[in-house]
Amino acid sequence: MSHLNTHSQAIPSSSPHAPKATGVYLATFGTIWNEKNELLLLHRTDMDRWCLPGGLLDLGESVTECLVRECREELGVEIVQEELLGIYSCPSRHLFSFSDGRVIHYIVMVFNVAVVEGIPTSDGVESRDLRYFPRDALPDIVPSHRIWVEDAFERAGTPFIR
Fold it and tell me: Is residue 99 very low, low, confident or very high in pLDDT (cuts 50, 70, 90)?
């Protein structure tokens, strides 16, 4: 999750001032639900916003391995990847400009996951808190994560491709 910080800015690709991407990153995130149909979100340490658990794929790592690793690192839990919620690659939502001049296009896969071991706990490094939220009481969510959260609550049955 730390790859996006206060030194990044979303640049809508439809803007006439949008720079060309200089790289592509692949990322995976997970949705974890409690028995009340509330979604688990993490309160980030680098900004006062909330997000889903997940992050960038390391070289040589599968999507599943990445999601398992990120949930272990960020939440201290073991998970099982379940169905694909969606694939998100629209540059108008997933193109970021960094202070060092990089412009990265993120391609993100979001999965529903089940915790099979442990109790989600904030790592204190990337997140300062975590909580389950109902749809009608969501906090201030990282802008690029908003569509993923909306889709998670929608649960259309067919993966979203956006």
Answer: confident
Measured from the Cβ of residue 119, the count of other Cβ atoms closer than 10 Å reads 8
Angle at Cα 11 formed by Cα 145 and Cα 13, nearest 5°? Answer: 100
Q: What is the CA radius of gyration of the chain?
A: 15
**Tokens representing residue 65 in the block:** 């391995």
pTM over 0.90: no
| CATH top class, domain 8-157 | alpha beta
Write down how long the chain is.
162
Distance CA 161, CA 108 (A): 10
Can you give the pLDDT at residue 8? 59
What is the C-alpha to C-alpha distance for residues 162 and 148, in angstroms, rounded to an integer? Answer: 10
Which are the contacts of 35, defined by CB distance < 8 A and separation ≥ 6?
none
pLDDT score, position 9: 58
Confidence label for 91 from pLDDT (cuts 50, 70 and 90):
confident
